Amino acid sequence: MADASSLAPLHAALAQLDTFILGKPHETRLALACLLARGHLLIEDLPGVGKTTLAHALAATLGLAFQRVQFTSDMLPADLIGVSIYDRDEHRFHFHAGPLFSQVVLADEINRATPKTQSALLEAMEEGQVTLDGETRRLPEPFFVIATQNPAHQIGTFPLPESQLDRFLMRITLGYPDAAAERAMLLGEDRRDMLRDARPVVDPATLASLQQAARRVHVAPALVDYVQALCRATREADAFHSGLSPRAALGLLSAARAWAMLAGREMVIPEDVQAVFASVATHRLLARASNRPQPELVNRLLGEVAIP
Q: Considering the entire predicted model, what is its pTM?
């Protein structure tokens, strides 16, 4: 486990993120925990509430190379991965990397692209590599996809398939700011100007060591029992068509480790699991009464499952 001095950059990163996204400290902490757990983040909300700003702020704060890709209905997988172009002089093909070859990739409005283009992200998000023309190419380290998604009821969207949703460790929503935060934003500096002037407070090498430290946060057997009980409850609940998979259980534990680390703890406690549970579980579950369950329905399980 990292000591208190080595966690100082993380606390500085959270403080800086909170200057960009006002009044949403829980959401910014979830986003940073997602990155510490080496996961990918899905932000679903209405346009204009700060989804893109949060992605920009994370990359700028952590000193990571950043690419934004605007997903559209006519976008092709090659627009994301890249293409091989034949050089007549050298009589061979040269690969021209697409925007996917960056440390932070913002897939803006991902559900406006067709399923064929969405599927181009599957191998990249799961294995940190892409295969094109029979050759496998590694992606940069760290590799972090932040996707924004409009609500499914909006015109011109293609719902993400289950396999794609499962690649995202967390799904969060930002929502409207409260009155005080909105007033501070209205009277304060333009967020685009702030992002241009932002300086990284964590470098990639430090981030990599912190990600390794997050993996070493201690998990007691009783805590594993609790994670298993929560996952079993989703599988047995009448409210859902199907429950959380073993991959989701692994993700829940990784996210809880990262949350505990942000709190300066050397071991995971049940409150860490509870803090990240809705963001890890909601997008993976299908409610019988509707499409995706609201976090309130998922969090209800926390009150029904006893802590060992």
A: 0.90
Place of tokens 């409005």: 109
Strand ranges in the chain using DSSP code E only, listed in sequence order: 41-44, 66-70, 82-87, 92-97, 104-108, 129-132, 135-138, 144-149, 170-172
Single out the residue in 186, 205, 238 at which a domain terminates: 186
Quote the CA–CA distance of 224 and 11 in Å, as a whole number: 27
Residues 77 and 150 in one domain: yes
Backbone angles phi, psi at 108, to 5 degrees: -80, 130
pLDDT digits (tens, 9 = 90+) for 231-274: 999 998 888 888 899 999 999 999 999 999 999 999 999 999 99
Q: Which residue has the tokens 């950059």?
A: 9
Q: What is the rounded distance in angstroms from the CA atom of residue 212 to the CA atom of residue 6?
A: 13
Q: Is the peptide bond before 142 cis (omega within 30 degrees of 0)?
A: yes
Beta strand pairing status for 66-70 and 104-108? parallel
Query: Looking at the structure, do residues 144 and 7 belong to the same domain, yes or no?
Result: yes
Q: Are residues 172 and 241 in the same domain?
A: no
282: in domain? yes
What range defines the domain where residue 165 resides? 1-186
CATH of the domain at 286: 1.10.8.80
The pLDDT value recorded for residue 152 is 58
Q: How far apart are CA 121 and CA 72, in angstroms?
A: 15
Per-residue pLDDT, 293: 62
Number of domains into which the chain is organized: 2
Choose from 45-54, 107-116, 163-172, 249-258 the range with maximum mean pLDDT. 249-258
234 vs 229, 231, 295, CA distance in Å? 9, 5, 13
Together in a domain, 177 and 228: no
